[in-house]
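Figure-free illustration: sequence to structure, shown twice.
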Amino acid sequence: MRTRLAIRLLSLLVALPLAAAPAYAAGGGGGGGGGNSGGSGGGSAGGGSGGGSGGNSGGSAGSRDNNATITKCKRGQAWNMRRKRCMAQQSGMLDDESIYEAGRELAVAKRYGEAITVLSLATDKTDPRILNYLGFSHRMQGRVLVGLGYYQEALIQDPGYVPAREYMGEAYLQLGDLGAAREQLGEISLRCGTTCSEYSRLSAQIGLFLKGGGWSPPEAASALGASPEDAL
């Protein structure tokens, strides 16, 4: 109960500076609406690519240069998708779609501090994709409750954004709250069934938790052979 209350309070703290944020520009990647299509379509690395597929409304898949921030840019820089070059991680230097892509790449590469720096530059701070990876990056640096606050805010913006529900379920497992993690698994199944990648990953994590291993990063769960059936 205390954990749930703390999450609500942190969600409010996350939401306060977002209240004055502008609506997501039509050309910026369709973060809110894109989340639904991304969630139902599953996702790739990190569980957040559901929103990434939704982001194609702002820039087609063909215009992307996968992992360009990691492979082409120096530290302190990020790939600008519109200008096709590396630019400083500073306000006004990157459009929101470039910020999302760079932040996602950095988070998946475990460069969490940099990911937070880049994602915090977004003009639209209500984009559930941005909020989701801010939550992920904070959580992976040990600030689990802060991460949960960001996930909660992402779901306020788009309740159907299942990548945030997957990560929220993982966060609950980190806190030892199996019941809350299962609730999120159920919410995911209602939105994209039991075959989407978000469901599979979270159910594998729950299965590993039930085997007594506690929470582990997704790659560890896969290596240990946890399966979706273990979560039931």
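We now fold a second protein in the same way, so the two outputs can be compared directly.
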Amino acid sequence: MGLDPAVHVGSITVNPITVRTPPVLVSYSQGAVTSTSGPTSEIWVKPSFFPGIRIAPSSGGGATSTQGAYFVGPISIPSGTVTFPGFTIPLDPIDIGLPVSLTIPGFTIPGGTLIPTLPLGLALSNGIPPVDIPAIVLDRILLDLHADTTIGPINVPIAGFGGAPGFGNSTTLPSSGFFNTGAGGGSGFSNTGAGMSGLLNAMSDPLLGSASGFANFGTQLSGILNRGAGISGVYNTGALGVVTAAVVSGFGNVGQQLSGLLFTGVGP
């Protein structure tokens, strides 16, 4: 006894689709806006190697600036239509026979204009060229099974990575990012410590950290090339070690309780 059934699938036709857009009217208005400045203190630059220089005096504030009202529009966009051309897949029937043999003849999706000319004088339009799909043939697949045949288990390992939020991290707690070490709980690239984010930040005690930015060393840091604790900015150094907060911000400062540029010592 032999079985050789066949399934014939006819062509699929998609009719043209037309989308109509309603007209749009857009306008915008803005009332007058008045801004008032607040008071400011004097601004000084006090490097350690020469006397301080006042670069801006104090101001009592109260100056006002008014931006006038304006109106834009209305902008009118008339209604329009967008037409997607129809097509047929395929032009000839698909024949499926058992044992499995599948032939899908080639077909063409015609080109056409998909974006109509836009209003406002833009005259923008676009379309797609015809797309030719060649014939696809899946030949018969022979399958021979015996009653006493045992199949499985089948295991085909090719490549795999364990579930983890990052790659190459060796932290105690989960970390995202790449090649981080220490207590973990952070993100970024090649950081060492706890709660680190950014690039190349480090702390000598792997259980401490909480730094972000680039190439900082210590705890509670943000910015670039800072060393110590409780520091933000660029190239600052705290005087209280890498655990006790020195409260320094700005650029090139060395000490504690400093803010600004190139200060040294203890601030107020």
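Summary for the second example: Residues 6-13+79-138 form one domain.
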